Amino acid sequence: MQRNTQQNGLVNFLGLFAACLVAAIVGNVAQSATAAVGAVFLGVGFLVAAISYFQMRLEHREHLEQLEYEEIARDRNRSALFDESGADTFIAKKAREQFERFFVPAFTAFLGLGQGISVFLLWKWLPQAPLPDLAKAPLVMVTFSVFALILFMLGKFSARLAGIEKLRLLRPGGAYLLLGSVICVVVVVAFAGGWFDFTRLDFYLARIMVIILGLSTIENFINLILEGYRPRGRGKSERTLYESRLVGLLGQPAGLITTAAQALDYQFGFKVSETWFYKFLERALVWLVLAQISFLMLSTCFVIINPNELAIVERFGKPLAVDPVIEPGLHFKRPWPIDQIYRHPAKEIQNFSVGNYFDDNASSNRVLLWQAVQGETETNFLVASKEQSSTEEDKTVPVNLLTAAVPIQYVVNDFLAWSYNHAEPAKLLKSISNREVVRYLVSVDIIDFMSTGRLEAANKLKENIQNQADALELGVEVLFVGLQDIHPPIGDKTTPVAASFEEVIGAEQEMRANVLKAEGDAAEMVPRSRGEAARLLSESQGASFERILTSGAKAEQFRDLIKAYESGPDVFKQRKYYGTIASSLTNIRKYVIIPENVKETFQLNLEDNIAYDLLGARPEER
Amino acid sequence: MNKQKISFLVGIILLLIFASILFIFQVRQSEVAVVTTFGSYSRTIEDAGLRFKWPWPIQKVYRFDNRLQNFERKFEQTTTGDAKPLIIEVYVGWRISDPKIFLERFNGDIKKAEQNLESLVRDAKNSVIGQHPFRDLISPREEDLKFNDIEEEIVAAIQIEAKDDYGMEVVFAGIKQLGLPESNTQKVFERMRADRQRLVKQFQGEGESRAMEIRSKAEAESTRILNEAKAQAIEIEGKAEAQANEYYKVFQENPDLAELLLGLEALEAATKEKTTIVADPSTPPFNLFQEGVKELNR
Hints:
By secondary structure, chain A is an alpha+beta fold. Chain A is 59% helix and 10% strand. Chain A contains 16 helices and 12 strands. The longest helix of chain A has 71 residues, at 497-567. Chain A starts with a helix and ends in a 30-residue tail after the last strand. Chain B is built from 7 helices and 10 strands. In chain B, α3 (110-129) packs across α4 (147-166). The termini of chain B are far apart. By secondary structure, chain B is an alpha+beta fold. At the A-B interface, β3, β8, β9, α12 and α15 of A face β5, β6, β9, α5 and α6 of B.
């Protein structure tokens, strides 16, 4: 019997190894996510079956050792040799015990760790996993169907053998074989879903399998922790640490209740399954499940629409003939799948931006300048140029570029049109808004648009976008079209365009400053001239007065002097002459040369001998 | 109810659910469905509701979205009729017009259909733009623009082929974005900057010109005021001189005395500053020095 068990264990782990290999190869060829996750499951099963097989061999050696011991004990009388039945006597038994004490927990921990890492990697990989290649569906479905059958037969055989207490080591491998069979069926179902246009079924099933793998990992670790606290009954068959109840349950769904009961009994050390509550649950479980399903179906008859939403009620895919659109609040409908609800935040104002996208809330900038890029990138629009007609033969493109951000707000006003006329109405509205902005800008002059035409442009754009949306029956009302962040492009270091526009403003201001300065100078110059003129006139008048008065006085003086002169002309002359000489020559340089010889020649240096002092002043100024 | 009856009831319910999944399918308002029997086309269903079919693998149902699809792809460079480079992005609105052809051509794959449509759109876009001069797309004169005509021409160029070959109806096309190649963009930047520089210089020149004009006018005014003042001053001084001369007539009463006094006055004025006198010893009163020397010599 032991020999058969070992052979069975060997078949189990070889079968799981082959299944793992095939699942990995076929899964890779057919791009099946379920097969990829299944390969991991089968790989874990292979490891579990391998360790079970090794443990079986140890138990078999122990059994042989025991038989040998009993035979020797029977044939001979007890001797000193057998009195020393110490540690060295039962080597195989000791090896098995050491294996179970150290290797099995370490293996279980290693297995759990490996499963955990697999779950993490698979969870990350799944969203990017390619869709299954349906062209290879026949290959996959045939291969996995065959493997499902083989694994089921092997698993069922092992499970039946494991029913015998001594063959408990066949249980883990058997459970993984049965689970492998289920996984093969799941892969087939995933590909069948692809045939029915539900290619994402592969992804969803793979995700469920990853979750199960995760739960199995958790179970492994819980088993590892609880093992230390579990009460051990003498002579009771011990459950292997790496055996997963979850895997056993999934491999044999019918044994759900039995597995649960066994788990409880095993963990608590007494018959939980014999308590009244457990028995009640067992009796009423079907009704409880039916009640739960009924409750679930009933819950699909109620629908709550949020304040910002509208919803369409479809009966068998067709909107209701009367009042298909329901407003916010509680509504009743027929249960799924008869009536279905499609909701959308149709009452809420939606926003998007044409051109530069600038999130006011996200930016910390409180100052928005032309020369600083707003948002992630700068979008330039082509704008017409008035110079176009005059540059007919010029190869330069006769356009200007303009950076703009046009935020648009809208709300859905016809929910049926919004839902049924276009596959992507929001995207289309964005496209037509973009088109209207481009269409408007190609027909206006950049300067007109940036200055006086701005308000008119916003109104015109709103009207045009609304007209287009109405023409395409989008079912929206455009609430607001803004023109923000409108400026010439920043340009680059060599040609800073926005800066050159600012320079014009600077030059204009400079021009005004020049004019104002000139006006200031003029305002100063004319009054100053008037003042100068007034001074000239005043001085002239003063001088005239002085001259007249002096003349008058001198005439009077002359009359008096005539009298003095006539009374003694020579004396008068002499007196006047010497008086004048005295007063005139007092402070001037004088040379009186009295030659003794008439032929004598004098050389006089009449240059001024000026000595400046430290302050640079002349002596006479000092 | 005993356990067997429950099992029977549950079995019947499960059977009904399973049968309904196999024999009935639903078509939504936004869908159109094609039913094939053993792979060959059977019928098209355009109205929403529940429909009957034979279970797989006898019949298979293909569902398509019958709403207007919005398709846009590349921002592509092309050339206008007057050989000017332009980058243009076009969006196209299409819907499935013939589900049977659509299924046959693309196996119902919208992505594949749009890949094929893209070739048509690109071809039509480039050929239509190539027939129009640049000013048909960008002009400040509204009457020159043929923006809408170009869009309609693109639709017309692809409509028949898309409908007949692809089972797709192209409803509209729109120009979503226009741009210039990088090199032209740089040139436009330079031109815009040069235009602004011209304005800068114009403003600077205008400022200087106006300032000069204002200053010149002010200077002229000042000169006029000063000259007028000088003229008035001369006139005043002339009058004063005339009046003074009236007084000086008294000098005629004794011309010798007048000459003497005026001469002395002139002498005094002439020697007021920085004068060096080299006096002859015969000049009185310096002749007194000579007489004094003679006296000493004696």
